[in-house]
Structures are given as C-alpha cells and as structure tokens.
Amino acid sequence: MQKLAHFYHSIEELSPKEAKYHLSKYEKVVYPKKTIILKEGEVENYLYFIDKGIIRFFLNKIHPAEPSKEITFSLLTENMFVSAYDSFITRSPCSYNVKTVTDSELYRIHFDDLEELYTTTKISNYLGRISAEQLYVRKMQREISLLTHSAEERYMNLLRSNPRLIQEVPLKHIASYIGITPQALSRIRKQLL
C-alpha cells in the first residue's frame, strides 16, 4: 500500500487524517497471472490501483466467417488507477474483459465506498476527477496513436515508454494492442535488430 499511500500523501490539500481515512476504504487483492478480474457482461464495482503487475483489457471478437479472437485495447502497469470505468460510472454491464497478464497486487475501492467518500470529504471529488482524467488521457493518446502513427512507430513508442510491456506481455497481445497481426509484429522486430 506504500505506493497508493504515497499518491494520497502527495496531495497538498489532503490532511494526513483524511489520507488515512481514504486509504482505509481500500482492500488489497492478489491475483495470479491470467486471472479474469472482470468478465464481459458483469458490472464493474471497483476502482483499482495497481501496486504490482500488468492488467490487460480485451474484447472477444466473434464473427461467423472467422475464428474468434481477442483484441487487446489497453495495457496498464504499476502506479496506475484502472477500472472498466464506463461500466463503473454507468452501473451497466461491461462489454469487454479485464485480465491480469502477470501476478498482480491491487488495491481496490468499492463503488459504494467511493460514493460515500464523495459525499463526506471535500477532497474526494478532486481525487475522483484525477482518476478519471488519467483514464481519459490514456484512452485519447491510444486513439490518436492508432490514427496517426504507423505500426512501427506505435511499437517503438511502446518500447520507449514502457519496455516492461514488451518484455512481459505475450507478443500476440502486443500485436493486437498496436493494431497489427503477430506476423507483422515479428517482421517489425526483425527489421529493428
């Protein structure tokens, strides 16, 4: 909880007492690698903070004329807040899956506890906004990258910004995340050697 506590204590407007109260609402959960945290069709009840591990968001693409496949659209690592946020805020079933890539330690806060914090502490709305902004910025950066960069540029940007993903995430998920086939990713990797 040290990393999450550091986040809370770094907020100047938050007193140590308020930080302690907020932190008391989180519970630690540990998941082995390849564990589904949230399955398509379920409602997201938690906002998570990744203390250790890598989390993958993916869709199951099912087309009658093609074999089904998973499409990875988000990869998140330590010190990030993570949630199927659209499901979390609308209280509606999620249209995708959330799964651990590696053994993971997370701290989570339940929707009801977060709502209670919003109504009882002044700083909670600020913290909620920060979490939402982080999720939104990551989403926009990914969309812009898919629209404006080549596959090679997307791979190189990922390699520069988070080399750990390249080392620990299976290449088929990296390929899907950057919008290409595993074969195309192999060709890019060979050209870079």
UniProtKB/TrEMBL annotation:
Residues 10-117 form the Cyclic nucleotide-binding domain. Pfam families: cNMP_binding. PROSITE patterns: CNMP_BINDING_3. Gene3D superfamilies: Jelly Rolls. It comes from the Bacteria. SUPFAM superfamilies: cAMP-binding domain-like. CDD domains: CAP_ED. InterPro entries: cNMP-bd_dom (IPR000595), cNMP-bd_dom_sf (IPR018490), Env_Response_Regulators (IPR050397), RmlC-like_jellyroll (IPR014710). Coiled coil: none annotated. This is Crp/Fnr family transcriptional regulator. It comes from Chryseobacterium oryzae.
